[in-house]
From TrEMBL:
This is Sulfite dehydrogenase (Cytochrome) subunit SorA apoprotein. It comes from Melaminivora alkalimesophila. Residues 370-395 are annotated as: Disordered. Keywords: Metal-binding, Molybdenum, Oxidoreductase, Signal. Residues 100-264 form the Oxidoreductase molybdopterin-binding domain. Residues 1-23 form the signal peptide. Its cofactor is Mo-molybdopterin. The keyword Hydrolase does not apply. CDD domains: SO_family_Moco_dimer. GO terms for biological process: sulfur compound metabolic process. The keyword Metal-binding applies. GO terms for molecular function: heme binding; molybdenum ion binding; molybdopterin cofactor binding; sulfite oxidase activity. It comes from the Bacteria. Residues 286-402 form the Moybdenum cofactor oxidoreductase dimerisation domain.
Amino acid sequence: MHTQAPASLPRRRLLAGSASALAAAGLASFHQGAAAQSAAPAAAKPLPGYAGWKNADAVIVHSSTTIETRRGAFGTSVITPSDQLYVRNNLPTPPESIVADRDAWQVQVSGVKEPRRLSVRELKAMGLETVTMVLQCSGNGRGFFPSKPSGTPWTVGAAGCVVWSGVPVRDVARALGGVADGMKYMTGTGGEVLPAGIDPKTVIVERSVPLEAMQDALLAWEMNGEPIPLAHGGPLRLIVPGYTGVNNIKYIGQLAFTDKESEARIMSHGYRISPPGGKGDPSQPSVQQMSVKSWINGPLPEDGELAPGRVQIHGVAFGGMHAVKGVEVSVDGGKTWQAARLVGPDMGRYAWRQFVLQADLPRGSHTLASRATDAQGNVQPEQREENQAGYNNSSWADHAVTVKVA
Ligand SMILES: Nc1nc2c(c(=O)[nH]1)N[C@H]1C(S)=C(S)[C@@H](COP(=O)(O)O)O[C@H]1N2
Ligand SMILES: [Mo]
């Protein structure tokens, strides 16, 4: 059983890379979030203005740029309501003015035979597709690493299951004559205005994914039935199903098919699986495709003592790139397992499934765990893979909860 480090604990150090570059340039306000976090009192932090519409009872505000969904708030109806969905920004959120005239937003498309700037209005005429997808930060579950990596100590709530609508990237590429020869990556660049006087490469949000990821990718303008809120990347966001949050570029300004990976720091050194004590570098694996994972959302220790008898143990399970085949639940900390039942609609292989196991729990303490298997037979591992920055935690043991029945 693991407990979350209080969000008020001082950070051991400020975010490496971008924050220090900004600090060096004297742009203190640019990493207000990190600074506020290290100095903050224990009281709950208020929602930042751009996310003021979020349901304050359903989220944990870590900083002005990091907001997590409470584990008990996920519910059992598959889709994460927008006002409960986590937020993670590496740079300050752009001004509301960028969503004043959404259809006028433009994205530069290059690495195609006929490169062009396209407005959202033009994109809307090129194609339409809808995908339900788990959006999950690479660092979700970092709070369970005993090594206390620097960065937001997310437990389970830097994730949600979201419906996106937009134009398939492959339709856009086709309309522009097709992908140019020799391209190996799809590279998306955030449309944030960068501070003057520092090397853009050190702060820009730009990520490359393998070219084949374009097959299911969208340039999306709608989320959960509404224009994408500014906090989640409106007016236009690149959606790369199955890939971790950072690869899903908000307020996308450029979409390029490239022969090399981006040289932005967030690609070359950030989001790399580094050995404990090490530093990120381009030789290490990049955090990209998600793998099979599940966790229980109820009952939880915060519900207090349970009455003896029947409980409905429920949670979410997803496969990353593959559909979920099944979920097992243990009520004895992983000694024995029983097949859970998948409940609710199947929204496709990139969505999560919800599961339930009915159990009769006698008086005492019970450690509840879940373990998912994907359609390829990959089983959620017991242990996390140790790494310096606390990425990709899919350990079922870390996600177990202990409840008391009295
Ligand atoms: N332009 C841009 N895109 C971005 C980011 C960002 O800071 N700027 N953050 C990334 C990260 S690290 C994550 S986890 C997700 C968070 O998406 P959300 O805020 O909609 O939950 O967006 C990704 N896309
Ligand atoms: Mo993230």
